[in-house]
Amino acid sequence: MVKKDIVKNELIVGTGSDEELFEKSLKIYEMNFLSKNIDFPFTGKAKIRYRQADQDVIVHKTDEWYRVDFEAPQRAIASGQICAIYDENDILVMSGVIV
CA torsion sign, 75 to 97 to 68 to 55? Predict the structure, then answer.
């Protein structure tokens, strides 16, 4: 499965190399902060899976959720997983559940 379209009640299938598997941003809810001094937009690094190489990101805050914009498209962003966000010193500053 490549994507789910809940509104249309559709599952989109494809191969592992499909471009539809790649996205440049994600939304986070249930954000947890480990630092009180975070200004938005926040520029840092993020990981969306265990042992993934650090990815350059900019985190934006809205009234309802947070949006993480990646410099490079990410493959197979999975809702329900955790996105961990680090500062320039590789210190974890926030994390949350991917929508």
Answer: negative
Structure token pair of residue 9 = 């009640």
* b/e map 67-96, b = 16+ CB within 10 Å: bbebeeebeebeeeebbbbbbeeeeebbbb
Q: Which domains does the chain have, with CATH numbers?
A: 22-98 (2.40.30.10)
Q: Over the stretch 19-61, which tens digit does the pLDDT of each residue have?
A: 667 899 999 988 999 987 899 999 999 999 988 999 999 999 9
CA distance 98 to 67: 10
3-state SS class at 21: helix
Say if residues 46 and 68 touch (Cβ distance below 8 Å).
Answer: yes
- Gyration radius of the chain over CA positions: 14
